[in-house]
Structures are given as C-alpha cells and as structure tokens.
Amino acid sequence: MEREKKYKKTILIDSNDDKALKDAAEHLRNGEVVGFPTETVYGLGCDGRNGDAVSKVFGAKGRPADNPLICHVGNKEQIKEIVSEITPLAQTLIDNFMPGPITIVMKKADSISDKTTAGLDTVGVRMPSNPIANKFLQYCAVPVAAPSANLSGRPSPTSARSVLEDMDGYIYAIIDGGDSEFGLESTVVDCTGTVPVILRPGAVTKADIDAVLKSNDTISGGLKSEGETPKAPGMKYRHYAPYAQVEIMKMPEGTKITGDNALASDGKIEKIETVDLKKLSDDEAKELVNIVSPFILRSREILAKNPFARIGLYCGSEIKAMYDKMNDKLLLAHTEFCVYGKTVDVSCASHGLFEGLRFLDVQEVDVILAQGFDGEGLSVAYMNRLTKASGKKEELAPGMPKPERPSRTALSIDAFKDTYTASVLFVDDNNTSLSACLESLMRKMLAKNEPYISNQESNAGFEIYCESAGLTAMSGLEPDSMMEKAVKELTGWGLGAIESRRADPAIYDDNDLIITVRDEQAFAITKAFPEIKDKVFSLSTFAAANGLVMKDSSGRVMSISVPDPTGENYETYLHTAKALNAWLEILFPYILKEVGACRI
Ligand code: TXA
Ligand code: MG
Predict the structure, then answer these.
(1) Which of 63, 26, 23 is nearest to 43 (CA)?
(2) CB within 6 Å of ligand 1 — which residues?
(3) pTM
C-alpha cells in the first residue's frame, strides 16, 4: 500500500493543553487520526466504528489489512458497547488488570467496524492506565481503535518524537505525553475460551494472571498445540526491527535478573551512567566479565572481517564502564553505546529497548548487539520483541515496507538543559581550493545530520561548527571558481562566503579538531606547536587512528592522497570534490565521536 502524505505538518499537542486535547478528540470523532501516549507505547487512534477512519490508520502505518486493531476505552462501562459477551474469565481479568498494560480479546459487538478487527469475530479491548491517555479517551467518548504508532515493521514508538519520525504529515496530530513507562506493548490475552491464552507477552505476566485465577492454566506462547498457527495475526514476522541487523548477546545462565515486572525507575533513558567498577565484589566482577565477553568477542570478530564496520551496543552501564576501562581505542572508535541502566535490570532494558534501537539506527551502525535475558516474567516479553527484531530482513511480512534509515527532518522538538559546542578546522597550504571544499562539504553534512546531543549527557544539545585555513595562504582571496562550481554541482551549495585565511595559533586554539589534507601539513603544525598534537591529524592519520585502514593488493597500507587540481580541467576538480566527499562521509561519524557528539 502506497503511503500518502495528507498534511503539510502533523500538529504536536502539549498534553497539559486541555483545550487542544478536546480539539484533538473532536477531530478523532470526525474521522481524523491522532497519535496518543499510553503507559506501554504510543498509539495511532481513530474511531473504531468508522471504517473510513480505520482505513486511514492502516494507510498511515503501512499495515497489511489482515492484522486487526485493538480498541481503547476510557472507562469500563464502554466495554459493553464493544463486545457481545463478557465471560466470567474476562471479567476477572478486567477487574484485576484494567486499567493497565493488558489487552483482552473477547467476542465482538456489531458496533465495531469489520475493518478494525480485520474480519475476525473477536476484538481486543484495552483500557490504558496512563492519565493522559485516559483523559483523551474520555474526551473521545467513542471506542478508539489504535495500533502502535510506528510504521509497520519498525520499533514501536515510546516518545512523541519517534511517532513524529514515522508519521509526520501522515496523521492529523500527536499528543506529546513524554516517554512511555513500560516501553513494550500490552500483554494480549485471548479470553474467548475456558482458559486464558497469552497471544503476546507483556508486562502482565503468566504468573500475574495465574495468581488472580488461583490456577496454573494460563497458556503462554500463543499456541494451544504444536504446529498451530499463531492466533495474534501480527506476531508472525520480523517486527520491531531497526535498519541495522540485530544480534542477541546471551546472559550467562543463573545471572540474577532484577526489576522483573517493576515499573521503569524514572521514565528517562540514561544513555550514559558512570559506574565504579572498584566497588564490585569478586563474584560480581566475575559475573560481569561473563556478561561483557560475548559483546567484545563478537565485536572483534565483526571488525576482523570488516575494519569499516560500526557496531551499536544496547547494554547496561557496567558494560560501558568495562569498555571504558579496557580502553581499546579501535574497539571504542567503532562502538556506539545506548545504555539502558543497570545491566541486570530487565525493566529498564524493556523501557528503553525500542527507543534504543531507533537511537542506534540514527548513529548509522551496521550491527546492533543487544543484551539478552534469561528466565520468566518480564524477560519473556523483552526477549519476544528482541528475537523478532533480530529476524533476517527477508522475513518481512508480504507487502510490509522494508526498514529504512529514518529521515532526520522531523526532529526538532527537544529542549535541552545545556548546549555544548565544538569546532572542526580543515587545513591545506592555500585556502582557496581543497580546505575550502572540505569546509563546505562538512557544513552540508552537519546540516543534513542535525540535531546533535552530547555523547556523555543525553539531555545536553550539541552544536558543531567548522572552518578552514591555509598554512601559507594569503588572506581575503576568493575561492577557486572551478572548485566553487564543482562543489555546487555536487551538493547544491557553493563555497559561499568562504574567504581564504592564513592559519595561526588563535585559529588552532578556537578549534577542537584539526584535520589537514596532507600528512606533511599535520607534521608541520605539530612540530611548531607540540602542545596541540593530540587534536591534529591529516585525513590519513585520522582514518588510521580510527582503524579505517585500506590495503592495496600487496598488503601495503594505502594513505588518502588528494592531488591538488589547480591548473587542471573541470572534470579533475569535480573528481577531487567527489573524492573528498566520499572520505568525509566515511570519517563523519568518527569526527562526531572525537568532538564528543552524536546524532539524535
Ligand atoms: O500496548 C499496546 O497494546 C499498544 C497501545 C497503543 O495500546 N497497541 C498495540 O497495537 O501494540 P498493535 O496493533 O501494534 O498490536 C496489537 C496486537 C497485534 O499483534 C494484533 O494482531 C493483535 O494484537 N490483535 C488485535 N486484535 C486481535 C484479535 N481480535 N485477536 C487476536 N489478536 C489480535
Ligand atoms: Mg505494533
């Protein structure tokens, strides 16, 4: 199904703005689609009785029409209007778990559109506990059919920004209610039979359900008998998947998992936490080595095959601390971290999973190594999502869009506590051609990839500047017109107002990273100013320092050589600009890392 952009911009609604909430509810009643927060993940809501509105949801999500939507209510009275019968079993679960992260499948009433249930005679009913969801659903006063608000196949969104990433222009509005508390979708329980069947595991576990029924009868896994097809239609294929391939790193057997079925602590993903490894007991240290080893071994294996590979880690804070302590420069240069909290805390890992997969995708990693968990309880739901996310790309449902690297254009809704800045300087002999070209290409790349945050503090923004200078440049010269034309042809941007400048200590001082075109130029700078040697590289030495080594057919390391095109024809200029651009694209993530920033 072709997705069709219906709006110039999707309206972002502040959940404290009561008037805007009521307005969104009215638009929903009139057939529009509204994204809203819940305690599990964000939903894409519409009037579940209105077939046309339901079609809009399927369209915006790119979801196959045979996968039903669940209906959300703001109070328990409404359930009677949606279902034809509430069995005693369903009633017990309603009494004990609603409002909360559970969806109960019951026999459907005629009021609900067949489109909502994809032709099934049953309907999933859910009453969220999130107060904003609850208020919004009360204002809607109709059964709100809503799937998770992600593009079909992608990780579910647990923040308004992620909904915007997938849905900007495709739906009327999104209500921003902050991060979702649980981060994994509700437990789906089929209550149409005599015993409950868990079709999709979630924060309400088999043990929780068995406890209220005082039995051990709840069937988990969604299959009544071997070989039967899954009953929740959406559970068959690769799902929740980022663009990068996902691999699961096993936790050693017997590791003590914490946080089981507890609420995530503070509702924020901590990307970095500092950990004092010295405070660990001998046993804890041994366990930690066992947990971190699979990450390190697998990373080294990947890098041995491809020295250009970039690896994302979805892991606990102690693992990040171990990596820092080992201080293997190459490994660190190729690793991007998303830290969810304490390594053994499965509720933190669940809370941050989808957002973490999206975050690592934005860092353009090739592979994501994610922490696996053993055991019962919430680990079952977490592993269910992670296993589906780690499926092979070919296991996509028919007609489902292939996962794509997300576009960055929709994202400008973050307010940061602090903003850091850094600046990168490109140096050549003169400053009218190659260094000016690098400056312009870098500016374009920086604009294309923004916004940035600090890679040490996830709530701090980051601005990156760039300039250029020449070791023997005359100041105030116009750029080389042929280079100007080549850069313009390549990027659509010219060299703009770049006027040549001679490099001097004040300029070196202003910059956090200095990259020269040729090796001799970097040597000349560090020879004259040895105190700044740590921030001076040539294109070649910067690549080599990050393990980006290319060898020729005889095994010799090749350096990046960019001949000066001055005096040659236009084709040579264009070729040179293209070569510099290709190198800069490879070096870009490492430049970000070097200055302490990452994309968001
Ligand atoms: O936490 C949640 O459940 C979120 C929030 C927004 O409420 N919603 C959600 O919806 O995850 P969705 O559509 O992404 O997943 C619902 C799952 C799908 O796997 C679907 O196939 C299954 O529930 N489902 C829906 N109706 C069903 C039915 N009548 N019988 C069996 N499975 C059903
Ligand atoms: Mg979903």
Answers:
(1) 63
(2) 38, 40-41, 43, 67-70, 103, 105, 117, 120, 122-124, 126, 146-148, 185-186, 188, 199-200, 231-235
(3) 0.92
